[in-house]
Amino acid sequence: MSRPVSSWVAETLAILLKEWRGELRTRYALNTVALFAVTTLVVVSINLGPLGVSRAALPVLPVVLWLILLFAASAGLPRSFVHEEEIHTAAALRLAATPSALYCGKMLYNLSLIYLLELLVAPLYLMLLELAVAEPVTFVAALAAGGFGLAAGSTLIAAMVAQARIKATLFAVLAFPVLLPLLVFAVQLTLGAVAGDPKNGLVELLILYDGTLLVAGLMLFPVIWNP
Amino acid sequence: MSHRTAGEDEIDVSTTRKALLWFLWLWIAAVTVIGAGFSPLAQGFAGLQGDSPLSSRIVYFHVPVAIASFIAFVAAGVTSVRYLRRREPRFDRSSRAAIELGLLFGVLATVTGAVWAKVQWGAYWNWDPRQTSIVLALVYYGAYLTLRDAIEDPETRARIAAAYGALGLIVAPFLYFVMPRMASFSLHPKPASAEMASPILGLVLAGTAGQVALFAWIHNLRCRQLALDERRGARPEEDEP
């Protein structure tokens, strides 16, 4: 590409800002994701909380945390591209933005949404379920790396789904097999962080999967986006 | 059939082709017969009534079809990338056919694996890392077919499906190779072939060659069938494999 990198960065940031401006006007994704997360959190907390089951169920808790994050994310993330098709702004966006910058901007938006979600859910979860984390740094690393993969994968799949019918159902069908290896790694790492004996190499594996998803997104997005 | 005049997709039943096909059937039959009847028995496997470990002989089918399914998915990924580069419909047909067959071989590997697992490990399904992986692979590529059904416009369908198929080039190796190896515990033996007695390894490889050739043959047939369907103007998505 002949254009300077700084203009690409500016374009990416412009997309990110546009997404947030639109989001703060409607607050569709924020409301959906937050309400979904809080509702499921309450249900889990009532049934699995300190009074609910015995501490023997402890290994289950990190799994449930990631399930909440996954489903909350899949309720809100596909919106970024589906919405463009619904309000017929996709064509204008095709003219205006470089595909790779568009992908990165949307991905950053989804990433910020997921990190906000994790910031809301994870502390509440630890508090409500009285879950003590033996290695807080590993725990945060698992959330950060897992969230990154969720955002990168969801953005790519959302771009595909936006051009199909039955978008919402299709997103789950397409995204879950892609995100499942990521989720398996993230759950194992979180389990390790809670118990205090994380397995070696899991963080690296998680970052590797994040990286491949991001690179695959950058390579595939232009052909998905441009007819 | 008024369309049989056109060139490359015509069903060509030349003598060489017939001979090759017979050779393929004989090859697979030979591997099956030698494998089931005459191969040395692998150590450390259970027998049906506690006698000789005959169950291990399913390896000559189970491992080859599993490898064939992986090769089919990789082939689909490669043709998907070629479609994205060249935008020729034949690559789209080719990757679709490869994924359908990869699913078929994958289901065969799963079912034979489950039968073997019942004999060897006592349960049809144990969520062993490899079992988990193949289920994820089947779900991933099953979703590919759903994705195709959900897009009306043929060009968009081919493009998006090719992107998803190309993404499989990253997902499939993770599922087939990385995830089973990173698990701390697996019921499956290590894939290190050095541990296998050489006649057993030889037969597994021969079986793999046979299954892959079988895949190539059916794939070729399916591609031509899809091409004919498209030429007739029928919606090829309507007839299932």
General description of the model:
The complex is a heterodimer of chains A (227) and B (241). With 227 residues, chain A is mostly helical. Helices cover 81% and strands 0% of the residues of chain A. The longest helix of chain A is centred in the middle third of the chain and has 30 residues, at 99-128. Chain B has one domain. Chain B is 70% helix and 0% strand. Chain A binds chain B through residues 156, 160, 163-166, 170, 173-174, 176-178, 180-181, 184, 199, 201-202, 205, 209, 212-213, 216, 220, 223-224, 227, and chain B through 84, 132, 136-137, 139-140, 143, 146-147, 150-152, 155-156, 159-160, 162-164, 166-167, 170-171, 174-175, 178-179, 182, 184.
Features:
heterodimer; A: 227 residues; mainly alpha; 81% helix; B: 241 residues; 6 helices
Outline of the structure:
By secondary structure, chain A is mainly alpha-helical. Chain A has helices at 5-26, 28-48, 60-76, 79-86, 90-96, 99-128, 136-161, 167-195, 202-225. In chain A, helix 4 runs parallel beside helix 7 and helix 7 packs parallel to helix 9 (202-225).
Distance between the termini of chain B: 21 Å
Can you count the beta strands of chain B?
0
Structural class of chain A: mainly alpha
Q: What is the domain tally of chain B?
A: 1
**Biggest sheet of chain A, in brief?**
none
Low-confidence stretches of chain B: 1-7
Report the span from N to C terminus of chain A: 20 Å
Gyration radius of chain A, in Å: 18 Å
Following the backbone from N to C, one meets helices and strands of chain A in this order, namely HHHHHHHHH
> Number of helical runs of chain A?
9
Q: What level of helicity do the residues of chain B show?
A: 55-70%
Q: Tell me the domain tally of chain A.
A: 1
Residue fraction in strands of chain B: under 5%
